[in-house]
Structures are given as structure tokens and as C-alpha cells.
Amino acid sequence: MIIYNETSSNFLIHIFENKIGYVLKENVYKRMNKVVSNSELQSWERSLPQMAKVLRDARLEKDSHVLLEYKLPSTEKRIDFLITGQDQTGKKNAMIIELKQWQKAKTAEGNGIVKTHLGGRERETVHPSYQASSYKRFLLSFNESLYTDTSIQLSSCAYLHNYIPKTNDEPLLDPRYTGYLNEAPLFFQFGDRKLAKRINSLVSEGKGEGIADAIEHGRIRPSKKLVETVGSLIEGNEEFILLDEQKVAYEKVLNIYNNLNTKTDQKQVIIIKGGPGTGKSVIGLNLMSYLLKDEAYAEYITPNQAFREILRKKVIGSSGYVEVRDLFKGSASYVHTPKNYFDVLICDEAHRLKEQGHMKKKIEGENQATQIIRSSKVSVFFVDDQQKISKKDIGSIKLIEEEATKQGAETNTVELESQYRCSGSGNYISWLDSLLGYKDEDVSLEGEFDFQVVSNPHELTKEIVEKRGGRILAGYAWDWTKKSSGDGLPKDVVIEEHDFALPWNDPNRIDWAIHPDCANQIGCIHTVQGLEMDYVGVIIGKDLGYDPETDSLIVRREEFKDKGARPAKPKKGQEDPLFDLVRNTYKTLMTRGMKGCYVYCYVEELDKYIREQIKQN
């Protein structure tokens, strides 16, 4: 969606008459039914007059076209400024210009990352040249008009109209950013004439209307190259081979999709039920590959950001084709998506869906499941009700069925049972269900899965991290200090009796679970759900205990530190909903291991109880 598509001459008139803010504000309300904030209005009124000065200097024909605020489909990102037209040889051009009001910046660790002052404090963000070039790559990978009509040449740059670069050692021009600077040049405050000259060389002859309309109305779907890349990365990869009931579930979804009656609005909702390790993500990724090859417009949704990042890295592999990332979205991406905009949406870890996204305005009567079903003709939800770990998690099977009914969708259900994690031991999962009270039956712990209880957290670290290259996880029984100290991450997970202290996982490392520098950090439920490792060690904190008198597990409310996830205290006589959230958390943590799980219990009674369950069986 583009908010503004006008000739360059009209744009200059709107600036000259001080109307640009009003015009954009009205367009946003008409096209998106949204009210523009004062800060966004001020941003336009500060940056766009600077571009008007550049365009006047560029001496363009009046029918060059200016496009403002192009919202990249199913993302919250918007391209600030696009200008289209022909050069003196008759070639069609479109130029992306990313506008920034920055005044200073610093280099930062990470590929294409810088530091600057945003939102009242210094933050890490992407280099402006990276941002501009990534928008260019997105359009070339997803806008059908651009990847099929090769006569339109797309270029990108960034303009920091308030930024005076340092004479020597300007951080934004550091050699580490050379690749991005070559792809999308950077123009500073006194570089306006150079920018004008560049614009003149590309679009001076005008005739930009057809190019602008092609971009605005181009059908959004992945390019053939992107589709082939995804397919080649999944096919032949043993990690993504479908086995037995995985294949059955996969074929059922395809059968429903292939028999879809496109002449009606009849929606289809497919719920795939499966516990940890039943191969839900393998099915989802294979579906994604097939659908893209069939020219369906499909996206893969995961509410958990860390899980999403790991999936992206697995699929991208060594190809370096970073545009694959744009096929993977968060569950808050569909608030304003029109009905049936997508052919298929695949939602993994759907039990983590929320009422609304972070910093999102709630639409009355809608939640994230509503939005996904509304936005697609076919929606596929992978769900495990026993992995809901927060009061904010609403994505139960029951809720998805109710939302499907409200929108007149047919609901189909598939159930997965075979275990492909935990050494393929369905026995371990059954034993764990019995241990945590999900099943009222005695189950013997047998099979190849390596489960042990250790006596102290140092032993856990030695066995899991040092010997087996695994990761340590813990329940949310320790506070999380958000600000790092001068010595690095604060060591929040403290067990004084054993002189043990390690930090929670680095919140700036979404790929914590696979990054070698993070081996001696403790993973929390929010960064490991959906992931798997060969070996995991789990620290069970004081939030979960055992009462010998009642022979039952207990939850200590005061020891559960995730305040945002904690439900209200129940009325007298009612069951505490926190009980299910805590045991769901530990079941999830204790099923991340492919080969083994070692456990250390902070509470002595719980340690004895688990050891007894191992011995007596």
C-alpha cells in the first residue's frame, strides 16, 4: 500500500503551500482508517521539505512521480520516499531514498549494525544503507511488477539531511559497512547537490506515472528465484524429510488446498495437534516449499521471535539469500491485512498466539487467530495446548475452532503422535506426563533417552555444556535484570548454596541457542520454545515443588518471577491457573533435548520425588 502517489510538480506544490502533512494525514485515514500521531506528522514536515529542495535542484520534468510511505506487505516497515521516471536514454528507473533525521552515530558489533539516539536513548539499529538496500531487495524479491518487468531499474540510497559527518573516521563510513554503502550510497547534510545530481541522472525526463503505478499495484508474491532457493534448501535435506504421519498430515493439507473452490469465499482452517517433538515444523516447512512452487502467496508465522530466527537461519543455510527471512513473520503482522489477501498462512507454535501484538492497538472483537483466519483462504495452525506458558497465550484448539466458526470456515483436524525428539522415545514423554500430573497412570521410564537428576548446578553445567555441548535452561524463578552492567550480563540465576551464578541468555542475541559465545548463559522459556538441541540441562527453581503429605506437585506463586505471564490470584476454592503454566513451562524445557535431559532441582522434596519415580519404575 502506498499513501501518496503524485507527480513531482504536485509534490513541490504541496510542500510550498505547507499542505504535505495534511495530505498525508488525510490519505492515511482514508486508506488505512488510522489516525496519524503528532510525532509522525512532525517527521514528515521536517524531512519532506528537505527532499523538495533536492528535487528542485535536480531539475526534473514535471511528470516524474513521487511515492511516499510505501508499506511493505505484511510488515510494519514503510519505504519513506520513492521517485520514478526515465533517464536521458529512455530507461525506466525507480529510486528508493531512505530519510533519516539522525545527527550522530557510532559503529556497533554485528553485520550492518550501528548505534544512534532513538526514542530517548542510544539504541542499536541497522545502518541506513543496509536499510535502503534491504528494501530494494525486498521489492525485487516480492513485487511481481519489478521482478518480471526487467526494464524497470531499481536503485536505493539514504539521505541524512541533519547529519554533518566527521572529517576523519566518520562511523557511518567505516570500512565494515563498505558493501552496503556501495549498494546504497549515503548522502549527508551538505551532500544534497550530489543527491540531486544522482536523481537527475536517473529520472530527469519524467514519464514516471506508469512506473509508479506498476510498483503500487504490482502483485505481491515471491519471485521464482526465491521460490527455487527455498525449495532447494528443503528438498534433499534429511532434517526436513517427512515420515509416516507427518506425510499424512502434509498430504491432508495439500488435498484441502488443491480442492479449494476459488469461486467462493469458503475458508478452510486446518488444526494440526501435536506434542513436543512430533515434527510440526518439518511439516510446515515442507508445506511452505510446495505452496511457493505452486505460486501460492503463503507466509510462515511463529509468535516466538527466537524460534523464528532459528528457522530462518536453518532455511537460509549457506545460500546467503537473506530475502528468505521475509517469508517468516510474527503473529502480530496481520492486524490490517485485507480479507483473503493470502492464499495460505501457516502458523507454527499457535498456542503462543496473543490477544494483540506488542505495542499494537487492539481491534475490537479480534485477536491474532482472528486476523490470521481473516487474512487467508487457508490457514494452518500447529497447536499443543500443553505448551501454553503465559496468561497472554490464548491459542488453544478450542479458541481456534471458535474463531473459524465465527468466520464461516470449515475446520479440519489432524493429530500427530509419533515422537521424533527425545531419542524417538514416546515413553519418555509419557513418563514425563505422568510425573507432571497430566496423566493419572504409572509409566516406567525406559528406552534410549538419557534422563538424569544431578545433585548440584555445577555438575549440570559440566555434564551438559562442557561434555556434551548442550545448553542450560531454567524456569522463570529468578528475576531478569534488563540492563547490562559494565562487566557484561548480570548474573541473575543465583543458587547461593552451591556458589553458582550465571546470566540469563543475552536478549540481544536472538540466536542464543546456537551461538558459541552464549554457551554459559541460561535459556529461559521465551527463547527456547520450539527449539531443539542434542542435550539440555534444566534447573527447576523454587516455583515448582512437591508436597509429601498430599503426594502432589505444588506451585509457589511468590517464586514465579515472570510478572507479565502470571495470571491473577484465584478466588478461594478455585484452582490456580498458574499451576498449569508452570508445569507446562517445565515440560517444554524438559523436551528440548534430542538425546538427553539432565535436571537439577532447587527444592529438595522435588528432587527426592523425581528420583523415586525413576527408581520405582
UniProtKB/TrEMBL annotation:
Transmembrane segments: none
Pfam families for the chain: SLFN-g3_helicase
Gene3D superfamilies registered for this protein in UniProt: P-loop containing nucleotide triphosphate hydrolases
InterPro entries: AAA+_ATPase (IPR003593), P-loop_NTPase (IPR027417), SLFN_3-like_DNA/RNA_helicase (IPR018647)
Stretches assigned to the AAA+ ATPase domain: 266-458
SMART domains linked to this entry: AAA
Protein name per Swiss-Prot or TrEMBL: DUF2075 domain-containing protein
Organism of origin: Exobacillus caeni
